[in-house]
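Before relying on records like the one below, remember that each one covers exactly one chain. Contacts with other chains, cofactors or solvent are not represented anywhere in the record.
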Amino acid sequence: MYPEPLSREALLAAGAEADPRSLAAAERMRRHFPPEVAAAALEQIVLRERARSKFGDRAGDLFFTRDGLEQATRPSVAAHHAARFAAAGVRRVVDLGCGIGSDALAFAAAGLAVVAVEIDEHTAQVARANLGDRAEVITGDAEEIGPELIRPGDGVFLDPARRSGVGRLWRTEDFVPRWGFVTEVLAGRYAAGAVGVKLGPALPHREIPVGVEAEWVSDHGETVEVCLWSGPGAAPDSRAALIMPDHRMVAGAGRLAVAPPGRYVYEPDGAVIRAGAITVLGDQLSAWLLDDQIAYLSADELINTPYATCFEISELLPYNEKLLRRWVRDHDIGRLEIKKRGVDVDPAQLRKRLKPSGAQQATMIISRARSGAIVMIGRRIS
């Protein structure tokens, strides 16, 4: 099954084009197919190319929309969602706002029965094409038909639409379904079992309902989401960072000392920072903070950790561009990585002004510290 107006023949022809974005490709396609079919096929090939960074080789077997691809869950993270439902004893999941069906695919692969709801008809067609007979896809408003679909003990998954025609939506009150409906489902109003709500990782802690677990997920160094969980299997009011596939750190109370940098500087993963687990990580690393408002940790002992990137510091410099330019020149630096926190500087623009052109490489970590802005020269430790 192909979503309208696509056809197998048009998709094959578009896939044979060397540059599906070109005017020449569009002209050739329109000689053999109606304009809307030609345009849809070429766009699908372009979207599949873009999707490879998220879906790998599986991208060539799936259908996408532009917004659907942006919001679609990576397969590894979707499998984690499915595993949480299965561990909570769920046998059937109602996916309210399924998009192109990336999470629903993982639920079905985990052996769960799936009913998926999507408000946009074209996106629902895409989801049906992706899911085939592995799930039932219903076109409709999740708020209107969702409560009728949910049975006692069902898992419910929501991925509220966070994009519109003008771009990304940041305020919860602009999400679809409404944030009020989402929080009602999380609170168990519809007698669901486990409930998962996928949101952008920048969600403020103040927006998280009381009694709900929040899990920030990082995959291949990128913090991709925060998922709110309630019901069986959830840890009420906990905040955790998950570094895929299975490194999990739960935030805790406490304070770290603040001191000048030691031999090593650790840059915590974004999920650790978002979850507020810096103190826990610092305790594990016997580390301290450079500034009580800056998420860099430092220590004199090297400890391997999946929760942070480590740099060995060889030199400390004051933040002075003239001095830094001279240092880059004197040390024959050509490949220069610049990282910064708490300092008003654009790393890309600073790199241009420092003019690296040599044969060596280095990392500059610019940070606010008790003594003011400092520059730590280091090397990344793999």
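Residues 69-248 form a domain with the Rossmann fold fold (CATH 3.40.50.150).
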